[in-house]
Fold these 4 entries.
Entry 1:
Amino acid sequence: MRSRTTSTTVPAAAAAVLLPLALTGCGGSAEGSDGNHVTVTIGYQSKTINTTTAGTLLRSLGYFERELRALGKREGRTYDVKWQDYATGAPITAQMTAGKVDIGSMGDFPLLINAARGKQLGRPTHLVSVTGYNLRGGLNTIVTSPDSKLASLTDLKGKKVSTSVGSAADGTLVRALQRAGIDPDKGIEKLNQQPAVGASALSAGSADALSQFVAWPGLLTFQGKAKAIYDGAQLNLPTFHGVTAREDFAKQRPVVLNAFLKAQAEATDYLNDHPVAAAEKVAKATGLPAEVVYLYNGAHGISTFGPAVKPQLVSALMKDVSVLKSAKLTSDIDVDSFVDDQYVKKALGTSYTKRLNTTPPAAASEVWPKGAEKTTSFKSPAELLSYVDKHKDGIRAAYVPDATTGTLWFADKAVWVADGDRLLPFVAPATAKKYVAAHGGARVITYADALEQAS
């Protein structure tokens, strides 16, 4: 997969807000810069919206270009930024190890492959910051077609499952199958496919299920092309996306990396302070529905955004190594030497400790009314349903947290359980049935019945 390359010369920053989606040729890197002109190449994934604070949103806001404009003014030189858009992290790693991308963003499993390839090829890289994360693993989901009879992991035995080998979604699939007592190598027929190809395969019936990362499961579910059968948060293992930089670039251009990390932190603050506006910006840039972007990046979304490198994320990264080794995708990886938070600590100064100690917001039910610039939160799913029932024609999207994992999901796509007067939503049928089995009198009901009971 090759990328589209566009060039924005600072201070001519007007072009910085343009976010083309097509994928074409590659550009150069800071290596080819002369003394008065420095080119910085950023690899990002526009539709992997968990990386948006280091990619799509950051680019649309123009914060990095602004930082470089100020830096160039102080230094008496011009900075040129090239943004390269990819579908997954693998081609970003390929371009980084070829010296053609300076800074990239990708998920946790691709980050480890990035570390391994960089060391192997003599182009070492380092994890320098985090973009978005979910401490339970809710960023990855296994879905099947809407009319499929598959309802649990055990139903996947002998079936064709599409995923991107080496991705965080593949890691979720492997671990989930192992916990269900299914050999991930022999128990299913794994199809190694790009997310878009896998989505098409699911729709065409050539794949029985799809295990993918943000935002594909939510997008397909929102479009009515899929339904969830496994919520990655059931693993209760952190998953995240982060920023990786070439070691030689970081040493040669520390002020540029510093500018990038400052800009990323500011983009993070913008997303957290203006979640609806941020979702609209990302939607406009990517072509994704804003309702899907908000599912992941909203005020109570599946993803929490913060640049600090949290210890629990590093610990999760260490546990991921064994999954990649068993798949023969890497050998041993020295995670401690790969993680290097010195740059983000310097960039954020005294605010770093506060960001490090920030905790995800509590799960909440939310409604996005049509035409509104902000959402409305409710104390319980039942209160949300009551509101939706009274304003059916005025709802843009309604979100509810899974009763056991807290993973946000579309209210009309959730599996609903009535337990006396309580109405409880679940992402997947298996978790709903597990709850019902443990609570006498509880029963699975339709969304329409849930609305009626709430009213």
Entry 2:
Amino acid sequence: MAGGQSRTPCLPACVHVVDDDTQVRTALARLLAAHGYEVQPHATAADFLAAHDARQPGCILLDLALPDLDGLALQERLAAQGSALPIVFLTGQADVQACANAFRSGAVDFLTKPVDEDSLVAAIDKALAREAALRVRHEDQERMRVQLASLTPRERQVLAFVARGKLNKQIAGELGTTEKTVKVHRARGLQKMGVRAVAHLVRNLERSGLGHALAAAGDP
């Protein structure tokens, strides 16, 4: 990874089990712990919101029917807060409309009680993998925003043209300068972006979703 930065989170991934049934909550927590997951049980949505550290990676195993905020309401609140924590729903009754609403809002899975152990583990693994991918993307975006901010206006212009496949000679003509000057700005810009080749720059911009931030600099 460019810049040698580590993506290892400072906190371990955690599965938050939110269920108001003490026996079910305890059984799920023990089962998941036996599979090697770090688990935090919560009796209500309010308990979860009070205890959750947004910096901690993980996912939520969420009961649909809760005494305060129900599962769908908690999902909605987390979305409004900008949380990307993936949710696996767990319910005692199959509810087609609730299931559809949950998936429409980004749920990873919708399981019914009593839950099959293999299905539960598979859903949790999928949720944690999704969260890890989202976290990496977010870290990439933050790193690239810092790198883009470090560019001078001319370096941004040159890299924008470079990313479009323009040659140094063409860029010099567009900017009314010399090829030598373009080469200097190009080299400095690539260094600040933590890459050696234009292909790597383009790939990183596309992966982070920030290609537009650089492309705008080269607009006439």
Entry 3:
Amino acid sequence: MVLELITLVGLPAVVATAEGIRQHGKNDQPAEPHCRMKDFHIDVYCNSQSRKRVQVDQTMVVMSDGKLYLAAKDSKTKTPLPLPRVSSASHPFTSFFLDFEPDQVEPNMFERLNRPPKIRGLVSTISVNPPILNWIFVDRNTFEVKYGSRAEARGHLLGPWDWTDDKVGIMLEN
């Protein structure tokens, strides 16, 4: 009788403590800024005195044939001009940040404990109609910035991507 009474009285305290710990954990995680979910383009500016400046300054990032390129912009429409030596039409880089989870399948309890953490990835549309997303990654073998499906991106450098401190550019792993 006494044991049942102690259990009955102690149970709400245990539940309240567990809930408090769970809520505290939620408060410790920084809220994902809304600006990371807005899509953006990348315009390139170069104020260096390099002889390559003319090729880089006032361009924008576009996607074609699985890779990211710099394309000159039309001065009136601000859209990318066609790329020379690229077989398919280019698509303007239209990206936002999204967490890359290592596996889509819901693991059992023990696998969940050993699962690698989420990585802040970068996705971009590769077409307008229908809107299709692909992951942006750095190829581990060639160090080229590429895009591809989840399966194609797996095993390469996926992030973390983030804004620079001044929120003007993006960076990969600091």
Entry 4:
Amino acid sequence: MQTKTNLKYSKMKTAIQIVLIAIAILLGYLIFNSVKRPIEFEKAKKERYEKVVERLKDIRKAELAYKDVHGEFTGSWDTLIDFVKTGELPLVKKIGMLTDSMVALGWTEETAIKKGAIIRDTIFISVQDTLYGKTFNAENLKVVPGTDPVAEFHLGATIITTGSGIQVPIFEAKVHNNTVLDGLDRQLVINLNDKARTNEKYPGLKVGSLTEANNNAGNWE
């Protein structure tokens, strides 16, 4: 009788040990996964953010060049892309400079130009070749890198009036985290968005602003 009792106790003890080992393994996995998940998320987020930021910088270059030529920004992708493809930028070609002897004669640069002593000639150069290079695909400006199906940045432009009554052209290009981080850990994306909203920040990446003149800054800068 004692032998059977001992055997039963031994089996129960073994079963308990197996359960405890299983629980320890499960806890270890959960702890490991809880650490691994955010690390992998941050790595993937960083890689995607870097590509999107580079594209936003390209958009900013195009918008600033457009404003130099037209005096305002554009909120139209068709207009901006066509400008990059076919637009031209003025470039002043300078030959000669105002010398001390010219200044002694009372000449200004304008006088020297009229007399032909120095030359200031305006030529026009391709927007695409100047800003991006001949192989650049302007159509990609509107595309959020790495998205499948392909997503586009939201683009807008307007003119605001400052408190001093000055009208200032502004633009904004942006993309939400839900688009940039699509396919990554959903809960961690939600947490990231909630943190941004709590801090009254845009939950994604953007350059410029449609509510204030922020010197065309990106929210990653």
